[in-house]
Amino acid sequence: GIPISNGGSGDLNSLLNNLANIQTQQQQTAVAAATTQNIQNDDSDRASKRPYTLPPQNTKLPDSVASHLPLLQLNNPNGVILRSYYELSTNDILNLPAIPTEEEYCARLNISRNELPIYDQSALRAAQFSELALGALANSQIPLALELSNSSVMCLRNCVGDPPIHKICLYEVARAYLLHGIFRSFRGDSVRYFKYRRVCMTHILQMNNQPNVEFLLAAISFHDAWAYIMHNASEDSLPDIDDSLPRLDNKDVSAPSAGSSANSHASQIKAKYGCCIDPSSVATDPINQMWMQGSPPVFLNNEASLVSRSLDAFACAIRTCCDVANTQLADAAKATGGGLQAQGPSVTTTAVMANEEELCSRNIVMSAKSLLDQHYGMINGKMKKQGLYMIASVMSAFLENGEAEGAGGAPNGGSGDKVGGFTSGQIKNLLAACDIIIQQPLLLHAPGPIYHMASNAAILLCHLMNGIHADFLNGAGAGSTTSSDSDNKVKSILFDEVFDTFMAVRKSLTSHRKSLPVKLRCHGIPRPNGVGPFNKKKGNNPGTPFIDVGETLMCLCRGCQNFVLMGCSPCVAAERALKAAKANVDQHQPAQAKYFQSKRRMEADDLSLDDDALLHVLSRIVQN
After folding, report:
1. What is the C-alpha separation between 87 and 214, in angstroms, rounded?
2. Any idea what the Cα angle at residue 322 is, between residues 320 and 324, rounded to 5°?
3. What are phi and psi of 3, to 5 degrees?
4. What pLDDT, in 10s, does the model give residues 22-62?
């Protein structure tokens, strides 16, 4: 395309110069292109050597998720608020360790931010989003909570498939699944809770020797106690998730090597209590596939943290109370000819009966309180978890039997003085538990049956005020002597204090109850009778209670119904029923029957031998 003229040598020289310039430009262009290609090849080679990179199209987060990423920054004011709500509600009970930032995580692995694997980054973000979602839920920001929960799910999608490069991020994945399952349960979706719980267990199975795993197991155990009472300890009412998520198998779990003191302790626990304490065995135990049952493994593990051990102990005590309530209801239905059939002792009841001295509800709650006191003594009382002390106080009040005389005339070690049918120790613990709820109402949003415990404590305050009110109207609280006047003054002060506490905690419980799905609501607590200008009493009838507990909108849980109907916990009601039955037998048994008691015992032994022979024959027939 270069024109050639017919001129002289000048034109020829000009033409040659142009051709030389064109050739030089072409060579420079080729060199530049080759250099660029080499750089691209080097970049691709370096990228191929990095096992952490994934295709960009698989790791890009939706805009709805990316818009919430600023909340994960520690200096973001809105994120700080949501994390504070989470800490004051959920983590005040679970006490899970803090999620590391990306900088802290990279420093732990000794890598740069650019080398952070997508899997690990997504795991950290999923755990953080799940915390913020629970914080937003406690702050009554429902749309934001749902968006943050969805953001956690989108991040967890990047953690599905190939195993991670660094195993330590499995802890954050398990935490994210657990917290997201708790969030779904608060929304009334128990099916997804059980599914996410099982996925969490699959990750716990892979980190047997990782530190802080007991925190996750204790958290699962305590929230399982809530599911246990919501389903009335009936496995028949649980959703069937085995088709979508098969049960965990313990075939691939390697047995711990013998010889160390820890393994020796684990062997002793296995021999005595029938449970394993290492995380992988707990996760694959057949009785723990839907909810934790049997002996509390974290509580029995001396190497676990003190707070986790106490939380697992509280969960075991709650399951035991629920089992007692079911047994009472079955016995009552049988006595009245009802259609309810007894299901036999549960796995937890069997374990408790086998080791009643250590695992009965009253003793295990005392052990849990001792562990908490020991923990806060070690940290000099800093960062005291009020929710755990609320559980300890309310469980102590529930399990104290005012009719069972303990040492020194005191019921179960408490004070022997009774007011309105309650001992001074019960009243003190009930007021302490309700005061914590009044001061920190966010605890009603905590995992586990905290809300149900607070509701039942308020119901017991109703029974207490009715008892004081009835004593006064019946003349037991009125008199002309100086001592009676002094006693009336003390009871009047106590009544006013209980009444103020009841009205304050009732307001918090009623507000929280309205925000819950109908099937998750506990008692609808009634107001006092005759309060206000439109509810004046027509007369002081001694039979009229101060608060008509019969107007209570009862919870669907049988364990909670016992507090309304019997005015005590299921365990105390069972003790009183057993004591009354024994007293009735001793009172009406004729002397002649006592005379033949030993003879009947011998005859019963003979019948037992006959039964054994018959059962042996039947066994052989069935086998053949």
Report:
1. 19
2. 70
3. -70, 140
4. 666 665 565 455 544 544 454 444 433 333 333 333 456 78
pTM: 0.80
Cβ contact 320:292 at 8 Å: no
Q: How far is CA 10 from the centre of its chain?
A: 96
Round to whole Å and give the CA distance between 311 and 221. 8
CB contact at 8 A, 563 and 589: no
Using left for φ > 0, alpha for ψ between -120 and 50, and beta otherwise, residue 111 falls in beta
Beta-ladder partners of 120: none
**Residues 366 and 313 sit within 8 Å (Cβ to Cβ):** no
Q: What is the dihedral of CA 554, 239, 187, 394, to 10 degrees?
A: 50
Residue 210: phi, psi to the nearest 5?
-80, 140
Tens digit of each residue's pLDDT (9 = 90 or more) over 92-115: 999 999 999 999 999 999 999 899
- Residue 291 CA: distances (Å) to CA of 170, 191, 246, 315, 560: 21, 13, 15, 11, 20
User: Cα separations (Å) of 3 from 8, 14, 25?
Assistant: 14, 11, 19
Alpha carbons 127 and 148: distance in angstroms, whole number: 11
Which tokens belong to 185? 């349960």
Buried b (16+ CB within 10 A) or exposed e, 251-276: eebeebeeeeeeeeebeebbeebebb
Distance (Å, whole) CA 412 – CA 576: 13
- Rounded Cα distance between 511 and 273, Å, is 42
Contact predicate 231/238, CB 8 Å? yes
DSSP letter string over 471-515? HHHTTTT--SSHHHHHHHHHHHHHHHHHHHHHHHHHHHHHHHHHT
Measured distance between the N- and C-terminal CA atoms of the chain, rounded to whole angstroms: 105
Using the structure block, give the residue that is written with the tokens 């018959």: 614
- Closest Cα to residue 437, out of 525, 527, 504? 504
The secondary structure of 210-274 as a DSSP string is -TTHHHHHHHHHHHHHHHHHHTTT-GGGS---TTTSPPP-STTPPPPPSSSHHHHHHHHHHHHHS
Q: Which of 99, 289, 303 is nearest to 202 (CA)?
A: 289
Joined together, the tokens standing for residue 450 give 């905290």
Q: Report how far residue 172's alpha carbon sits from residue 241's, in angstroms, rounded to the nearest whole number.
A: 24
Any idea of the CA torsion for 444, 508, 81, 63, to the nearest 10 degrees?
Answer: 70
What does DSSP assign to residue 101? Answer: P
Pull the structure tokens for residue 229.
Answer: 């009472």
As a whole number of Å, the CA-based R_g of the chain is 34
What's the CA gap between 248 and 529, in Å, rounded? Answer: 54
Q: How far apart are CA 118 and CA 156, in angstroms?
A: 11
Number of H helices, E strands in the chain: 26, 2
Distance between CA atoms of 574 and 565, rounded to whole angstroms?
13
Report the share of the chain in percent with pLDDT over 90. 56
- The parts of the chain modelled with pLDDT lower than 50 are 1-7, 9, 31, 35-36, 38-40, 42-58, 258, 404-415, 477-482, 539, 591-624
d(CA 509, CA 454): 8
Torsion sign over Cα 208, 214, 216, 220: positive
How is residue 283 written in tokens?
């996760």
Q: Please, are residues 434 and 457 in contact by the beta-carbon 8 Å criterion?
A: yes
With 0-12 / 13-18 / 19 or more C-beta atoms within 10 angstroms meaning exposed / middle / buried, residue 3 is: exposed
